[in-house]
Recover the amino acids of this structure.
C-alpha cells in the first residue's frame, strides 16, 4: 500500500505542476509552497473511503504542519471524530480506511473564503477525473463525504446537495426526531458509488447534527451490511 500511496501523491503533484503551467490565471489561488499531503491508507482491507474537501486551513503555520490528509497521522480532534464514526460503523480506522481529498492542493486561504471565482467548480473539474481514477483502486467501496461544499461537485443535476437532507432534517425536528435517513445512490453521483454525507467537525456544534450522529451512523452501518 505504501508504494500505491507514493504513486498517487507523485501523480497528483505532476498534475498540479501541469495546472500551474497551463492555467496561469489560477496560480495566485494556489499555495504552491507546500507539497500535496499524503493520502491515508489503512494496513488491512479497505472497507470505507473518507473524502475530504481540501487540505487548506487559514493559519499558515498550521497549514505547514498538514502532511497527511485530514491530519489522520495526528491524534487531534478531527481524527478522534472520524475514529468515533468508524467505531460506530464497526470499521477500524487504522486498518480499513482510505482517506483522500477531492481538491489535492493547498489554497492561499480556505476555498469558502475565496469570492473572485467558484473554487469548487473550477478546481473540482480539474481534480474530479483524477479522484475517480484514484478510487478505482477500491471498486465498490462506499464513500463517507466530509462537509457540505463537496456535494455540489459530486451529485448530478437535480440531486439534493445538503447534508441535513440525508440526515432526515425537517422543521420542528426536535419534537419529531429524524428517521428518514438517506444516502446518495451510485446513479445520483459522479463517483458512481454509494455516498454517505457527514458534516465537518465544526458543524457538530449544531444540535441537529450532534443529536443525530449516532442514529445516522447506525443507518449507514445497516446499509453497509445489506
Amino acid at each position: 500500500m505504501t508504494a500505491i500511496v507514493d504513486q498517487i501523491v507523485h501523480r497528483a503533484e505532476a498534475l498540479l505542476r501541469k495546472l500551474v503551467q497551463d492555467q496561469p490565471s489560477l496560480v495566485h489561488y494556489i499555495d504552491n509552497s507546500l507539497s500535496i499531503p499524503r493520502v491515508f491508507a489503512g494496513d488491512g482491507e479497505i472497507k470505507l473511503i473518507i473524502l475530504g474537501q481540501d487540505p487548506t486551513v487559514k493559519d499558515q503555520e498550521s497549514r505547514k504542519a498538514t502532511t497527511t490528509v485530514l491530519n489522520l497521522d495526528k491524534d487531534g480532534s478531527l481524527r478522534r471524530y472520524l475514529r468515533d464514526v468508524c467505531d460506530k460503523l464497526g470499521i477500524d480506522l487504522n486498518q480499513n480506511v482510505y482517506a483522500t481529498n477531492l481538491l489535492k492542493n493547498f489554497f492561499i486561504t480556505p476555498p469558502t473564503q475565496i469570492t473572485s471565482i467558484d473554487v469548487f467548480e473550477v478546481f473540482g473539474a480539474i481534480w474530479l477525473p483524477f479522484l475517480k481514477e484514484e478510487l478505482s483502486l477500491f471498486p465498490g467501496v462506499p464513500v463517507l463525504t466530509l462537509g457540505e461544499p463537496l456535494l455540489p461537485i459530486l451529485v448530478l443535476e437535480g440531486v439534493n446537495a445538503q447534508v441535513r437532507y440525508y440526515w432526515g432534517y425537517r422543521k420542528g425536528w426536535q419534537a419529531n426526531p429524524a428517521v428518514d435517513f438517506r444516502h446518495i445512490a451510485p446513479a445520483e453521483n459522479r463517483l458512481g458509488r454509494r455516498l454517505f454525507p457527514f458534516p465537518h467537525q465544526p458543524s457538530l456544534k449544531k444540535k441537529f447534527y450532534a443529536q443525530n450522529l449516532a442514529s445516522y451512523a447506525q443507518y449507514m452501518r445497516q446499509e453497509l451490511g445489506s
User: Anything to note?
Assistant: The CA atoms of residues 152 and 161 lie 5 Å apart. The domain at 2-225 is CATH 3.40.470.10 (Uracil-DNA Glycosylase, subunit E). The helical segments are 2-22, 60-64, 77-89, 93-96, 119-135, 151-154, 163-166, 207-225.
